């Protein structure tokens, strides 16, 4: 129900929304939880395992019960905390983990079977038969247990990622955080103040306290006005700092557009990476529950949450509220309720010496031992000196004390320290370099203490930042002590819940201890306590206290489980913002892209490049038809192919030749100007790194080409060699891959085609500048097809025009464009290698190029390539394969000797490349075969278990087409 | 004889304005990488005048000519012909290898904060950086009203798309 005169929601701005199909009205500023509460809705979800009806437990991001689905046009977001989700006009929310309805849930039958469903039940029960686990048990359990459901569609909404930098990051805008931010901002520091709430102020907005004699909210407003007016301060609301990483880097999740209906381009969330010189953690503390029988009924909440709903939202769930606590702080809830006109039935205080000052019944030394009301609390049973009694009540506020939110201090392996007087874990000093902890997060619970501590740590941080603090007078505020009697569990009959989100009871924890899962980490995994969306924020300390009791150890000896990022749930969509589908990686387009697409070429990704697979023509229905035609075209007339993706590196300097001699196995210092040479490059470990041609453009000027795949790798290798081994050498290099568009023109009519454009007078493996009208171009006579071949390069701006022009000319000669498929078949016919063969585990010896490792000089990898085991008959060596009866063979197949069993130990090698050769009229393969070069003419058995291929092949030299190279030299 | 038509990397792409920020293609003119040869630094310095070979993350400019630091022992001469530098430095034409775009307007810094992991708020005219724009390598130059960005020609469309998306999201935030 709404309480008149309370809260800061905008009563003049009604907001309509739907929950489980029913329309309700709330106000602007309401969360889904507060709005439902105002409408008297108590049951908001069903529990994970037993499907027990559950209501709102908290008023913050730690909420374990009120998890709902938000339904939008193309979105269905599960596990949204109703305590965080702001309502907006037309919002639609749905409860989850129930069927057919929230009120009547069939699987609530699990609750009756609870005696059998204790911790470890699945492990013990679904053991046998083994095959049943994946097919029967697991799907069954997954249907019965669980939280929200997914739409099954891609999340195509907008998300954002961003970077921010500051001198001081203040995490949390309660009294400590505000004081810290103000202190630092006045000193001129660049400050980011981040808070997960919609409004800043923390508990100052939720409590009814005063500062400087005025309502605390007024002080908050003044401070925010001052901070907001300073250019060196950024206020980030709805932003939860979720993780701490090296070098003062913090992750944060901002809810940007989740509080309004979806609108174009507005991101739902933004994932921030904030780099801060120093940080102040003022995350506050979180009230914890007490475990007693049936403590999970709708209507039972933390005492502070009742206060938040009353003071901030103007709502009370109960008409007759009871408080059960072990400390002073919860009394404030009773006082606030009574002041607002809500009846308080009783205060049950576990402390025998508790003060009895309130204007309502107060039972000292009393405990709640049971509750009633399946769909909403109706009464509680209280045990006290006079015996047991029933109290009629519809809302119970529980306080088992406060847990400082130490989570972020633990993200770099810091372990919190137990403080017996506060019955809480406190941050370990210096747990995160550059992070200072203030306020309730540091165990300082009074408002005055928070203000002082916030300002003090800010002064410390300013000192590290080399800034002088300006003296700041702090306002007067409440400075009450915090008296607490540890109470974790009220023993008695019935199940007492610890982890509401994962349905873990005290009995489960005791069972874990009994079955020797006595370490806190083992207990967690055995019972699943702390593994739900709230990550144990509501239950960790209580569970380990019960475990400590069960094992007879103290709490500090028992210790906590590890707090890991994120502090609160982060959607993967936010972390991967912009990375969906094509956004995954940059797309690299060649200058010929549009021309290829216009001709209907399917584009395939090669690394980040998009390259044409083949160029279909009228009447062709398969890629093979197009590929065969293109291969035959290149062998018969002329083909044009964009080869711009190959890496090109311009190398200059007096030591350029010497440098190339070092990185290549063969000699480049002897290469005449105007000539091109094929080169092989090794890694330091002796395996082949890459291959390609390098042209000598001038005395001290070379142009290296690399394979497409290894362009970046080779550039990095050259940088490393130059910097690490060649200090002082006069060699300079830079990538020119992007600067030149380069086209292969191959086939018997290649020269005739090019002569219509430029003067072509080059020997095989020659190169030189040519003039294409006004355009300075480069011509190379090289071939990857085995035909007479040229490559012509122009500055990229002319690439598209030249490609279209070359195609037009080729087509008038009976030729045309060819794609990657044909290029691959052409090179297999010729026995030319690609990275399918030089895949990182092969040596120059393996590919039959050991003679290319010059004996006259040293080179990178030469020594390593000569090690025992790197050469010899035991190596798998490159061979060609042809199946005896003309069937398809496959890359990835393995080779065996005929007559031997097809088992791993008999493996003789593997196939790296295959293609159908229209030139030779059959399938060809390239393979690595044990001692293969000595086995030309032999038969091997090719087996591919995946594709069900089993065929005999003849071993041969890998060069099938024109082995003498007559056509090449033409 | 062929009469080849030259196309810029973002041929036909009109400027985009969103939230007071303008994204447009920039014609960089001639771009030459200049990498001084060993022992030529002094002679080169004289030949470069009035430009100076820039320190890391710096730009030397005179009129339309700019010398932009792009890496270890390397700078790009933009908007000028590298006359008189032969033999003093490795000179390599880069005019066609890079797509130039400009991002101008008061919110340009906020747009780039979505894509570039650097604090650009205090970057002054005359400074530059080699950094990443999303997953792409970029040469970033601070100019009077905003920034110029040089990305690989082949990635121009992705760069444009990512910048445009960041601009629109920022504008939608401002309107929210």
What descriptors fit this protein?
heterodimer; A: about 950 residues; alpha+beta; 7-stranded mixed β-sheet; 6-stranded mixed β-sheet; 50 strands; elongated; B: about 180 residues; Gyrase A, domain 2; 2 domains; 6-stranded antiparallel β-sheet; 5-stranded antiparallel β-sheet; globular
CATH architecture of the largest domain in chain B: 2-Layer Sandwich
Which chains share the greatest interface? A-B, 57 and 53 residues
Can you give the helix content of chain A as a percent range? 10-25%
Percentage of residues in helical conformation of chain B:
10-25%
- The arrangement of helices and strands of chain B along the chain is EEEHEEEEEHEEEH
CATH class wording of the largest domain in chain B: Alpha Beta
Please state roughly what percent of the residues of chain A sit in beta strands, choosing from under 5%, 5-15%, 15-25%, 25-35%, 35-45% or over 45%: 25-35%
Please describe the biggest sheet of chain B, giving its number of strands, its sense, and whether it closes into a barrel.
6 strands, antiparallel
**Mean model confidence by pLDDT of chain B:** 97
Q: Would you tell me which CATH topology of the largest domain in chain B applies?
A: Gyrase A, domain 2
The global form of chain A is elongated
Oligomer status: heterodimer
Beta strand count of chain B: 11
What is the tally of beta strands of chain A?
A: 50
Write structural notes for this entry:
The complex is a heterodimer of chains A (970) and B (176). Chain A is of the alpha+beta class. Chain A is built from 24 helices and 50 strands. In chain A, the strands form 13 sheets. In chain A, strands 8, 9, 12, 13, 14, 15 and 28 form a seven-stranded mixed sheet that branches. In chain A, strands 41-42-43-40-34-44 form a six-stranded mixed sheet. In chain A, a hairpin with a 4-residue loop joins β26 and β27. In chain A, α8 runs parallel beside α9. The radius of gyration of chain A is 37 Å and the shape is elongated. Chain B is an alpha+beta fold and 176 residues long. Chain B has two domains: 93 residues, Gyrase A, domain 2; 65 residues. In chain B, 19% of the residues lie in helices and 36% in strands. Chain B is globular and about 60 Å long. In chain B, 45% of the residues are buried. The model of chain B has no long low-confidence stretch (mean pLDDT 97). Classes of the chains: A alpha+beta (970), B alpha+beta (176). Chains A and B meet through β8, β31, β39 and α21 of A and β7 and α3 of B.
């Amino acid at each position: 129900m709404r309480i008149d005169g309370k809260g800061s929601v905008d009563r003049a701005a009604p907001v309509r929304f739907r929950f489980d199909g029913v329309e309700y009205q709330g106000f602007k500023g309401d969360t889904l939880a507060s709005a439902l509460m105002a409408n008297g809705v108590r049951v908001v979800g069903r529990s994970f395992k037993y499907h027990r009806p559950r209501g709102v437990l908290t008023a913050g991001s730690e909420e374990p019960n009120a998890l709902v689905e938000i339904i939008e046009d193309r979105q269905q977001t599960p596990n949204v905390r109703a305590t965080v989700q702001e309502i907006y006009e037309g919002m639609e929310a749905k409860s989850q983990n129930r069927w057919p309805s929230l009120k009547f849930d069939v699987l609530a039958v699990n609750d009756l079977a609870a005696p059998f469903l204790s911790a470890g039940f699945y492990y013990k029960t679904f053991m046998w038969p083994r095959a049943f686990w994946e097919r029967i048990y697991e799907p069954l359990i997954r249907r019965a247990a669980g939280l929200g459901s997914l739409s099954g569609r891609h999340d195509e909404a907008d998300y954002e990622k961003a970077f921010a930098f500051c001198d001081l990051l203040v995490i949390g805008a309660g009294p400590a955080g505000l004081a810290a931010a103000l202190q630092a901002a006045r000193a001129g520091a660049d400050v980011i103040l981040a808070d997960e709430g919609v409004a800043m102020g923390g508990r100052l907005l939720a409590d009814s306290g005063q500062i400087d004699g005025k309502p605390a909210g007024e002080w908050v407003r003044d401070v925010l006005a001052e901070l907001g007016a300073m250019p060196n301060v950024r206020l980030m609301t709805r932003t939860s700092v979720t993780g701490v990483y090296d070098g003062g880097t913090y992750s944060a999740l901002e809810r940007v557009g989740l509080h309004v209906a979806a609108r174009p381009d507005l991101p739902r969330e933004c994932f921030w990476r904030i780099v801060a010189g120093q940080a102040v953690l003022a995350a506050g503390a979180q009230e914890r529950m007490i475990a007693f029988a049936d403590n999970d009924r709708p209507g039972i909440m933390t005492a502070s949450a009742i206060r938040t709903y009353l003071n901030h939202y103007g709502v009370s769930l109960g008409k007759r509220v009871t408080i059960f606590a072990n400390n002073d702080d919860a009394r404030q809830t009773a006082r606030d309720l009574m002041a607002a006109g809500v009846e308080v039935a009783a205060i049950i205080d576990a402390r025998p010496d508790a003060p009895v000052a309130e204007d309502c019944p107060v039972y000292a030394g009393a405990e709640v031992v049971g509750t009633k009301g399946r769909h909403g609390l109706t009464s509680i049973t209280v045990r006290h000196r006079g015996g047991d009694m029933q109290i009629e009540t519809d809302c119970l506020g529980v306080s088992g004390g406060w847990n400082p939110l130490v989570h972020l201090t633990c993200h770099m392996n810091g372990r919190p320290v137990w403080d017996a007087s506060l019955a809480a874990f406190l941050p370990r000093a210096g747990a995160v370099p550059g992070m200072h902890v203030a306020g309730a997060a540091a165990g300082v619970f009074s408002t005055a203490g928070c203000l002082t501590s916030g300002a003090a740590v800010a002064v410390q941080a300013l000192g590290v930042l080399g800034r002088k603090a300006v003296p700041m007078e702090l306002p007067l505020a409440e400075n009450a002590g915090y008296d607490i009697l540890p109470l974790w569990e009220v023993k008695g009959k019935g199940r007492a819940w610890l982890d509401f989100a994962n349905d873990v009871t005290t009995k489960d924890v005791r069972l874990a201890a009994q079955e020797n899962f006595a370490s806190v980490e083992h207990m967690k995994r055995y019972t699943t306590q702390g593994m739900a969306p709230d990550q144990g924020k509501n239950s960790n300390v209580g569970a380990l206290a019960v475990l400590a009791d069960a094992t007879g150890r103290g709490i500090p000896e028992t210790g906590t489980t590890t707090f890991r990022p994120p502090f609160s749930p982060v959607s993967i969509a936010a972390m991967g913002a912009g990375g969906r589908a094509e956004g995954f990686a940059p797309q690299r387009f060649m200058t010929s892209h549009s021309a290829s697409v216009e001709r209907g070429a399917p584009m395939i990704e090669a690394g980040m490049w998009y390259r044409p697979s083949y160029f279909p023509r009228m009447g062709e229905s398969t890629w093979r038809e197009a590929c065969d035609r293109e291969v035959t075209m290149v062998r018969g007339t002329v083909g044009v192919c964009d080869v711009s993706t190959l890496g090109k590196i311009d190398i200059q300097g007096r030591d350029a030749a010497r440098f190339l001699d070092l990185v290549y196995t063969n000699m480049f210092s002897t290469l005449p100007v105007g000539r091109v040479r094929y080169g092989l490059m090794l890694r330091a470990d002796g395996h082949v790194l890459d291959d390609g041609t390098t042209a000598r453009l001038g005395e001290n000027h070379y142009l290296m080409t690399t394979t497409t795949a290894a362009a970046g790798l080779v550039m990095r290798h050259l940088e490393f060699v130059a910097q690490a081994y060649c200090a002082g050498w006069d060699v300079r290099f830079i990538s020119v891959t992007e600067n030149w568009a380069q086209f292969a023109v191959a086939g018997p009519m290649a020269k005739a085609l090019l002569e219509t454009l430029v003067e072509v007078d080059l020997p095989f493996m020659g190169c030189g500048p040519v003039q294409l009208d006004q355009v300075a171009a480069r011509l190379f006579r090289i071939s990857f097809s085995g035909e007479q071949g040229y490559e012509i390069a122009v500055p990229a701006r002319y690439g598209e025009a030249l490609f279209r022009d070359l195609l037009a000319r080729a087509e008038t000669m009976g030729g045309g464009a060819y794609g990657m498929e044909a290029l691959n078949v052409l090179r297999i016919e010729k026995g030319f290698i690609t990275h399918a063969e030089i895949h990182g585990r092969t040596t120059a010896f393996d590919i039959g190029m050991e003679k290319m490792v010059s004996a006259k000089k040293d080179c990178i990898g030469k020594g390593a390539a000569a090690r025992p085991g790197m050469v010899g008959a035991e190596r798998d060596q490159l061979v060609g394969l042809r199946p005896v009866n003309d069937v398809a063979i496959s890359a990835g197949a393995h080779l065996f000797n005929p007559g031997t069993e097809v088992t791993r130990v008999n493996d003789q090698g593997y196939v790296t490349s295959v293609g159908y050769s229209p030139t030779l009229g059959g399938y060809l393969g390239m393979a690595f075969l044990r001692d293969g070069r000595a086995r030309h003419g032999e038969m091997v058995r090719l087996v591919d278990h995946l594709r069900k291929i089993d065929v005999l092949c003849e071993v041969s030299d890998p060069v099938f087409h024109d082995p003498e190279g007559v056509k090449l030299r033409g | 004889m062929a009469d080849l038509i030259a196309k810029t990397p973002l041929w036909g792409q009109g400027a985009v304005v969103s939230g007071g920020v303008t994204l447009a293609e920039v014609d960089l003119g001639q771009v030459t990488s200049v990498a001084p040869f060993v022992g030529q630094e002094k002679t080169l310095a004289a030949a470069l005048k009035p430009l100076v070979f820039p320190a890391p993350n710096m730009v030397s400019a005179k009129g339309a000519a700019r010398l932009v630091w792009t890496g270890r022992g390397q700078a790009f001469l933009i908007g000028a012909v590298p006359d008189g530098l032969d033999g003093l430095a490795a000179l390599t034409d880069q005019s066609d290898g890079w797509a130039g775009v400009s991002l101008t307007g008061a919110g340009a810094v906020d747009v780039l904060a979505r894509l570039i992991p650097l604090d650009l708020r205090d970057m002054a005219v005359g400074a530059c950086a080699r950094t990443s724009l999303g997953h792409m390598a970029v040469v970033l130059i601070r100019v009077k009203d905003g920034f110029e960005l040089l990305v690989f020609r082949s990635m121009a469309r992705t760069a444009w798309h990512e910048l445009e998306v960041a601009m629109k999201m920022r504008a939608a935030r401002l309107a929210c």
